[in-house]
Amino acid sequence: MFFYEKNIIFAKKIEMKNTLYIVVFLLFASIVVSAQKTDNIKWYTVEEAMKLNAEAPRNILIDVYADWCGPCKVMDAQTFNHPVIAEYINQNFYAIKFDSESTLPISFAGHTFVNEGIRNGSRKPVHQFVKALGVTGYPTVAYFTSDLMMIGAIPGVMSPEKIEPLLHYIVQEQYTSISLEQYEKTFVSELKRK
Questions:
Q1: CA-CA distance, 95 to 76, in Å (whole number)?
Q2: Fewer beta carbons under 10 A from the terminal one: N or C of the chain?
Q3: CATH class of the domain defined by 39-193
Q4: How far apart are CA 42 and CA 53, in angstroms?
Q5: Domain limits of the chain?
């Protein structure tokens, strides 16, 4: 009987030790996942970005999307979640994610925009702001200077390899002197560092 009780105690110690290993593993995994999330872009509302820009001017990036848009999800997963792209955007832009079908009024560059489709019963109303940006498809990323002058709006999914030189081109204000195609010829990518 004594031998049997010792085996039970020993088995319980092993079980507790295994449980401890599992808890430590889960804790470590959650820390790693949390650390990875810091690579994600910090998205702001229009109002938050305008307030921050008034205090510390930066370029503005507006990702115009729709909830039902498959290519928008691809761009989120493959481009905006890339650590090098996210880090560069966070350091150099106030990034706004704007739902093209939002029902909220917004103020941007001294103008107030609403979703007029709400009043006329449209099923999938497009916000006035989206129309003002000239967006005709999703995703579209619009770029602005810190003083809210529109640089341009690029429709379609852009891979990390395609968007990286564009972001640098905008931040370095090269669009004032050379074409993006010229800039890309001498651009050195940082994508392989992470």
A1: 13
A2: N
A3: alpha beta
A4: 14
A5: 1-37, 39-193
> Residue 65 belongs to what H/E stretch?
strand 59-65
- 3-state SS of 75-128? HHHHHHCCHHHHHHHHHHEEEEEEECCCCCCEEECCEEECCHHHCCCCCCCCCH
- pTM over the 0.85 mark: no
DSSP 154-169: EES---HHHHHHHHHH
pLDDT tens by residue, 3-39: 556 556 655 665 655 544 443 344 444 433 433 444 6
| Burial annotation 104-134 (CB, 10 A radius, 16+ → b, else e) | eebebeeeebebebeeeeeeebbbbbbeebe
**Alpha-carbon distance values, 138 to 72, 81, 116 (Å):** 7, 18, 19
Decide: 167 and 85 in contact? Cβ < 8 Å.
Answer: yes
Tell me what percent of the residues of the chain surpass a pLDDT of 90: 71
Mean predicted lDDT score pLDDT of the chain: 84
pLDDT for position 130: 95
